[in-house]
Specification:
A: alpha+beta, 30% helix, B: elongated
């Protein structure tokens, strides 16, 4: 087994998620659509110190859509 | 002050105030009853539709749960054969709940179980860290045990949880550098479509696995042990997430079912009251007309 240099950068879970994503993207169109749903995550997290919550961060930032949110600011 | 008089008192103190105000008060009460009836009918429609939605989601959630539990079973097999000698002092608690309400006692069942474990102290370090998945339990536990909360997650549970969610949670916990000797996952165990109860899953850390005699019988490279412990954590979190999701949907279905039943009972009793009130008003008017006519 070649020296696994990925271990220095991320965990095994991340490694398996990357491989899974590669596999899903290589599937046939119909199967791919079904499989993509299994890879979705909208997780948000925040660190807590002494009973105070920190800022909420998206694990996978949602993509920016074309339409900007309606705002009264000019 | 006049408006404060209840219907009962109006009945027991007759005719001091004359017919017109009494009629006016009855009409006001009739109007109130009508409004109340309309709003309870709306609520019944809403809770009925929520129950329908939850019933359709339940089938899918249960299927995902039976598939997801296999992951947890694989873990259990491993940890059964590699038990630890020393009991863990400092445990990391992962509390699995969700963001949405209107689902009965699902969130408080998990929060209460966690608080019970802390109260029974024995060998648990009172500074044991807690990570919470789900805003509802986060609100409850951040009030009860604020110093122990280390990390919280949300936006899980809208749809059936995916392994990507569980892997993300596991990674963040490992990267956050929180210290612990073993991990306890507190979740709701699905007993049947109408009942659930809080349960725990134990996951061993990398060090605990290395120390365990059952594991030492094999020669394992450190790299692989670390991978195994990380993957085992993600597995266990995934199993707990899907089972908790199924419990939440079935609890929501039952809660909305009860709410609809209560609402329809209320509608029946309000309708009867309304009819009685309407007929009383009509009778009063008739009496007025007839006494007026006979006086001529």
């Amino acid at each position: 087994m070649s020296s696994a240099t990925w271990r220095a950068h991320f965990t095994f879970n991340r490694y398996s998620q990357i491989c899974a994503r590669a596999l899903r993207q290589s599937l046939k169109e119909s199967e791919r659509v079904k499989a993509e749903k299994r890879g979705l995550t909208a997780l948000r997290y925040q660190h807590w110190e002494n009973g105070q919550g920190g800022e909420q961060v998206y694990l996978v930032p949602p993509e920016e859509t074309e339409k900007p949110k309606g705002s009264a600011a000019v | 002050m006049l408006a404060r008089r209840t219907l009962a008192r109006v009945g027991s103190q007759p005719s001091v105030l004359g017919a017109a105000p009494t009629n006016a008060r009855n009409m006001a009460t009739l109007r109130e009853l009508e409004l109340r009836l309309k709003s309870v009918r709306n609520i019944e429609k809403i809770t009925k539709s929520m129950k329908m939605i939850a019933s359709t989601k339940l089938a899918k959630a249960q299927r995902a749960m039976t598939q997801g539990k296999e992951y947890g079973a694989a873990n259990a097999e491993l940890f059964q054969n590699a038990p630890t000698e020393t009991p863990a002092k400092r445990k990391l608690f992962i509390v699995v709940s969700s963001d949405k309400g209107l689902c009965g006692g699902v969130h408080s069942s998990v929060s209460k179980a966690t608080r019970r474990v802390f109260a029974e102290q024995q060998e648990i370090d009172p500074e044991s860290p807690i990570t919470i998945i789900g805003d509802k339990s986060k609100a409850q536990l951040s009030r009860a045990l604020p110093k122990n909360v280390a990390l919280t997650f949300n936006q899980i549970g809208r749809d059936v949880p995916t392994f990507a969610d569980a892997a993300g949670v596991a990674d963040l916990i490992i990267k956050s550098g929180v210290k612990y000797d073993s991990i306890t996952i507190v979740y709701n165990k699905f007993i049947s479509a109408i009942s659930y109860e809080a349960a725990t899953l134990e996951v061993l850390t990398e060090n605990a696995l290395k120390e365990s005699p059952g594991f030492k019988a094999y020669e394992m490279e450190d790299d692989f042990t670390k991978d195994l412990s990380e993957f085992a954590l993600a597995n266990a979190i995934y199993a707990a997430l899907v089972e908790g999701h199924a419990c939440e949907i079935s609890a929501r279905r039952n809660a909305m079912d009860n709410a609809s039943k209560n609402a329809s009972d209320m509608i029946n009793s309000l309708q009867l009251q309304y009819n009685r009130g309407r007929q009383a008003a009509i009778t009063n008017e008739l009496v007025d007309i007839i006494t007026g006519a006979s006086a001529l």
